[in-house]
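Propose amino acids for all 289 sites.
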């Protein structure tokens, strides 16, 4: 699933593509991506005609396209959702599901989703913040993000620090990739109890998360396959700069110890066993090979 940097790259690509443009037509080529619109795909398309987009917005991993009348289209990219911007008449990418045409006759915006776990939905009154995602915390790029308050909340969590870091109601935007990279940078084991962190460790981890995601954003995010691309079809390059995630048995860039992959919440965690020593209770973690 795209994390904060990937979604922000998409948002920035959509800004010039939709802001101030009025919708002339919407084609729903497959009903599943608009399944949350209870009145059906025809009504979803019809109700958007003649409405104008404001500037796209984001919180954490969630993206929405405000309309100037106060409503919004909430977009969830899921595992493989993409927005593509193409000139009219350009052949559709495979798995194109929804197409937006505009009154100015210029470039179209197409929602492409191979696995169709993502989707688009109309959020009445959601231009400022859709109610569907009001429970999502602010992320480190939000001007109102409060590291001190978030650090205190992190230290109140009675769980491993990585579980806490993945809690989108605590800090938005961090997924498995950037959690592992942040923990490597902060020299913390993923199973260290969050409530044993010092204030300095908590703030250091939040700073590491912001640094890692800033560096990823600068190179277009992380692309391991064609399921994540920008609106022009280009891939991100942060996978070339990863220090821990996906680097099993490769030397730690800091100390040279081989990176270890371990089972974590039905997925994997990657860490340096020397730089990120296991807390006593986590010493028996089963290694997934």
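Proposal:
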């Amino acid at each position: 699933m795209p994390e904060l940097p990937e979604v922000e790259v998409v948002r920035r690509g959509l800004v010039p593509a939709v802001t101030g443009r009025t919708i002339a037509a919407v084609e729903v080529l497959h009903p599943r991506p608009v399944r949350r619109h209870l009145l059906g795909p025809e009504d979803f398309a019809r109700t958007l005609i003649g409405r104008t987009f404001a500037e796209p917005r984001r919180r954490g991993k969630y993206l929405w396209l405000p309309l100037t009348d106060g409503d919004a289209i909430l977009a969830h990219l899921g595992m493989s959702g993409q927005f593509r911007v193409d000139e009219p008449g350009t052949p559709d990418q495979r798995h194109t599901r929804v197409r937006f045409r505009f009154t100015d006759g210029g470039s179209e915006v197409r929602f492409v989703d191979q696995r169709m776990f993502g989707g688009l939905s109309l959020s009445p009154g959601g231009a400022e913040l859709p109610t569907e995602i009001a429970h999502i915390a602010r992320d480190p790029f939000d001007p109102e993000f409060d590291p001190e308050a978030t650090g205190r909340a992190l230290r109140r969590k009675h769980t491993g620090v990585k579980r806490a870091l993945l809690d989108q109601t605590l800090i938005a935007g961090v997924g498995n990739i950037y959690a592992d990279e942040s923990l490597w940078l902060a020299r913390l084991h993923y199973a260290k109890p969050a409530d044993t962190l010092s204030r300095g460790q908590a703030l250091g981890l939040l700073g590491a998360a912001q640094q890692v995601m800033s560096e990823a954003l600068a190179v277009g995010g992380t692309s391991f396959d064609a399921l994540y691309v920008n609106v022009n079809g280009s891939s991100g390059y942060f996978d070339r700069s990863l220090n821990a995630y996906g680097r099993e048995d490769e030397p730690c860039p800091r100390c040279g110890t081989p990176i270890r992959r371990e089972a974590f919440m039905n997925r994997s965690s990657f860490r340096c066993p020397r730089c990120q020593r296991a807390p006593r209770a986590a010493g028996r973690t089963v290694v997934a090979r």
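The CA atoms of residues 177 and 237 lie 14 Å apart. The beta strands are 23-28, 57-59, 62-66, 72-76, 81-86, 96-102, 108-113, 119-123, 260-264, 267-271.
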